[in-house]
Amino acid sequence: KRKALEKYFSRMNDQQRKAVFKIKGPLLILAGAGSGKTTVLVNRIANMIYFGNAYNTEQTYGTPSEQDIQFLKDYIDGKTNDASTLADIVAYDCIKPWSILAITFTNKAAGELKERLAGMLGEAGQGITAATFHSACARILRRECDKLGFSSSFTIYDSDDSQRTVKSILRELGISEKMFPPRTILSEISHAKDLLQEPDEYIASAAGDYRNLTIGKVYKHYQKKLKAANAMDFDDMICHTVKLFEQFPDVLDHYQNLYKYIMVDEYQDTNKAQFRLVSLLSQKYNNLCVVGDDDQSIYKFRGATIENILNFEEQFDCNADTDVIKLEQNYRSTQNILNCANQLISNNQGRKGKNLWTASGDGEKVTVYKASSERSEAKFVADTILEDINKGRKYNDHAILYRMNAQSNALEQTFIQSGIPYKIIGGLKFYDRKEIKDILAYLSVINNHFDFLRLRRIINEPKRGIGEATVNALEQITSDLGDSPIHIMQEADMLAPLVKRSKQLMPVGDMLSELTELSDTLPLAELLDKLLDMTGYKRHLEMQGDEGLTRLENINELKSTMSSYEENADEPSLSGFLEEISLYTDVDNLDSDADYVVLMTMHSAKGLEFPIVFMVGMEDNIFPSSRSLESEADTEEERRLAYVAVTRAKEKLYLTHAEERMLYGRTDRNRISRFIKELPADCIEKQAEETKASPYLNGYEKPHSMSLQQQLAQRKADKSNFSVNTETFAPGDRVLHKIFGEGTVLSSKPMANDTLVEIAFDNRGTKKIMANYTKIKKI
Ligand code: ATP
Ligand code: MG
């Protein structure tokens, strides 16, 4: 019988199978990337639900009949779909789906886990809790939070809410925001929560230090305020659940009895609070299985402690037989990719050494591509993807990984121009970000004084004490008088319905009208700088600490877009720029296929895999990031991140770097990433962009020593020797596209130096494409 059961898991290697069948007691699976850790979790759950009873607790509960086993076999093989029979069998299985709690790290990973479980178990899997730490805790708290003095309708505060709360506390306590930026305080509070430190403990440990005492005081008020508002922040989810379990043994007992089997994926990234939570829940039955990889620990900055994994054996062997299973065979990647990963991570000091190997062969070499600029890097990625599509690949075989969100901008633009559908995972598309929308709204209002919709968006952003009622009144008068709202704001003191708020409105009207004048003379990038200053938007972001700085970086990245627009357009203008941008913001209509290229940060790629992976921006100061180069420990964490990224690739890996990169609105020349230098030479092949392709870069020595305007002028001058022949397209023209084949032109619109053509392709649906960009020919 044992053999018959194990057959279902015959794909598993010996070590994996051992893990699949070890259901009772603590279990640590410690293994490298792609060795099947998550696969084991899924199979282990399947085993528990189908056979856990039969195999593990035969004596106590009885076993399924041969007939049932045959049915299960057919069900797994897809020969039958009769879920009702399945339900009968599950009904007398001892491990109920709802007694299983599987925790992973990101929403995306939890989603995939659920999908894989549904694929393997169908309806039988319903009721398994597969969740992130936060969502698992939120679920418990909704039911139990009255014991902690909350009502079950509590609100979950996002970081914006938290920040506003801290600000109001600072105001009440008379503490200066300059000395104690809310964002800094919040990250201190968050850190304290990772360590399960209550405000009083925090204050006690401050040992009289003024700064820490002050933060402790704010922390204490913050918790009080949240409670009064019946609200919890993200970290509270976990801390409050721990508190609940510690203070109410009967509640803990209830959940211990409910979740008898607990599994945690990506255990290397748990922090102290999460560790405590898992320990409490599993204390009674000890059925805790954690899987992880010390080489993939990438959240130290959020309090993750690798000790959790390294000390697992000591922590859990108290009264049960702990097992540690190591997996060495990698099933994901080719040997060339693995050699790169192995060699790279061997440069780290503090690690339990291990080497990944695969039986699947060397595969293609890893391609290192040198581009001249961030745009040609993006173009290389886009062209490679289109060639793959031509060979029968799908878009979603491809993933683009970068270190920082702002890097997505150049890629997004190129994808849009090439008609490549894409999706950003774990983040917003560049033009969907709040700060980008705000700034574009400002520019739109300056460009068109009658754009009331956009005015509404920014009139009180940053806060200027202009409320909804005032804006409504303004809109009414605007439409009654047929005058521009900006002009009306400037005259607010003479208009009865606005007089009360004229102090707030008039400066905004004056400012917008002044900016309008400036927009006639200033280059776009300088206009943007002025706008950021005059509106107070920049100051507003600077007060928000790290998050504000990230937003500011995104806005600077918008400057890169402006510069390349000015460089390309014949007669650059604000309205021309906004028109071009409207193409990018319209991107969702571009392609409704579910098949798309995915873009994400390396952090959010953890646990995922793709046939073809591009790691872009492989330059020192980008990756490894400039900040991480300051300390060896941080560089090591960055190297683990590189290891994570490299091991996402199944078949083909590209590492790209640019000689010169415009990011955040400034141009830099960075050295090739030290991580590329650490790769074994015989596993990589080097390619470089033919310099012919961008003649304007020749003789271009030190771009960063020039001002942005000088650079633009130079690039533009160089470019005029390299003008493009623009073919004209009219609706009804038949055209041929290298990749998408033949189609009929629906519309065409000149834009910058190119033409935006909408084409109904015979076999690929309707797409909007830049004509010169991908070389469309009339036939
Ligand atoms: P990571 O550390 O990146 O999270 P992992 O250890 O969780 O990786 P999985 O995602 O479970 O690895 O597996 C990697 C790939 O290997 C998956 O495509 C999976 O289907 C495949 N795989 C796992 N085990 C086997 C096996 N025994 N035989 C064939 N393929 C396997
Ligand atoms: Mg995994």
From TrEMBL:
Residue ranges constituting the UvrD-like helicase ATP-binding domain according to the UniProt record: 10-334
Keyword tRNA processing set for record: no
GO cellular component, one term: cytosol
Domain UvrD-like helicase C-terminal: 335-607
Matching Gene3D superfamilies: 1.10.10.160, P-loop containing nucleotide triphosphate hydrolases (3.40.50.300), PCRA, domain 4 (1.10.486.10)
Domain of life of the native organism: Bacteria
UniProt entry keywords in alphabetical sequence: ATP-binding, DNA-binding, Helicase, Hydrolase, Isomerase, Nucleotide-binding
CDD domains hit by this protein: DEXQc_UvrD, SF1_C_UvrD
Record: residues binding ATP: A31, G32, A33, G34, S35, G36, K37, T38
EC number: 5.6.2.4
Protein name: DNA 3'-5' helicase
Species assigned in the record: Hominimerdicola aceti
